[in-house]
Fold this sequence. Notes:
- With 378 residues, the chain is of the alpha+beta class.
- The chain folds into three domains: 13-97, Rossmann fold, CATH 3.40.50.20; 126-186, ATP-grasp fold, A domain (Dna Ligase, domain 1, 2-Layer Sandwich); 192-377, 2-Layer Sandwich (D-amino Acid Aminotransferase, Chain A, domain 1), CATH 3.30.470.
- The chain has helices spanning 21-32, 63-72, 85-92, 101-107, 110-119, 136-143, 167-176, 232-249, 282-285, 290-299, 329-333, 364-377; strands at residues 13-17, 36-40, 54-56, 75-78, 96-97, 127-130, 147-151, 161-164, 182-186, 192-200, 206-208, 212-217, 220-226, 253-262, 265-272, 312-318, 338-342, 353-360.
- Helix 2 packs across helix 3.
- The longest helix is centred in the middle third of the chain and has 18 residues, at 232-249.
- The protein is globular and about 60 Å long.
- It starts with 12 loop residues before the first strand and ends with a helix.
Amino acid sequence: MSSKALPILPGATLGILGGGQLGRMFTIAARTMGYRVMVLDPDPASPAGQMADVHVRAAYTDEAALRQLGEACAAVTTEFENVPAASLVTLAKTCRVSPGADAVAVVQDRSHEKSWLARHGFATAPFALVYSEGDLDEALAGTGTPALLKVARFGYDGKGQARVATREEARAAFREFGGQPCVLEGFVTLDCEVSVVLARNDAGACALFPVAENRHVDGILDVSIVPARVPDELAGRASAMAQAVADTLGYVGVMAVEFFVAGGELLVNEIAPRPHNSGHYTLDACVTDQFEQQVRVLAGLPLGDTRLMSPVVMVNILGERWQDGGPHWNALLAHSAIKLHLYGKDAARAGRKMGHFNVLDADPVAALDLAERMRSAL
Ligand code: AMP
């Protein structure tokens, strides 16, 4: 990381690699605080590009674009894990970069991530690395069946994953994925899923957001419930484990750790080196939200207060809602304690994250009940 004078104050330019919804919410937070924002994303309709002071439309590996970013920005961050580590290294020569290339390289490949977790004593679902069809028999013997075959790179939201019950199914899935490196994971019977979003600064101090309880449908996050309906002791363990992951990685930035809860035990599912969908509740329910926190840690400002001000339920809005005449916004907007966030995406495809809403209520049961009703009414 370059040794620019910290903190970086409003008026300076901050950069972000990636212009999706996470980049958009970072951009809004940074501009609200008086920073200028430069977004690098090849997509001319990028949700973050619409909000930025400058949108550089180029590939993430484009040398000239990286130079432009590195010269204009006091600091650069990223909104996705598939950013080429080499681009972060290039940028780090001229400006502050967080998170660093080393941490991103660990988590952008499931096989590295799982091996790293196991090596450092973090519990995971049983897994085996699969590089060729010949590895599958031994892998299946290790994980048992059913199991999930997941591509090591570029899988997200349940894409690049197949549930397999037999060796024939595993072979067919491996071929379907083009024989690329995969991780085979034993299928875990889940009590529930939880996640922790945190920020860790250069001095190693951590600020943790409250634990979220997450429900997924078809591998995509559907609903987050906060406070999570789990014993305090388990929530405390999740927070401690998430912090230990960040400390062990020497991480600087905002990150999320997703957990499976199985038989009362916590298994690390995934690490995201960025703000996370399961932290969108913070936008309306916490003193500081995860995107302001991303700005703060990037700029070297003191970390913001992560206190929860109200119980909250976050509901994702996916592209399928646009079929049959589009979402019924009236029903949603009629409620005074529902906060709608849309990401400015034109093309509504099934499974595409178009927006989310947060339902706030002092009574968590009432918040969940209203969220469920609005989820159906949309
Ligand atoms: P992932 O993209 O790997 O986070 O998977 C998306 C979702 O699929 C998870 O949040 C779980 O709901 C489910 N899932 C993934 N892996 C497993 C597993 N090994 N056992 C049970 N459920 C899983």
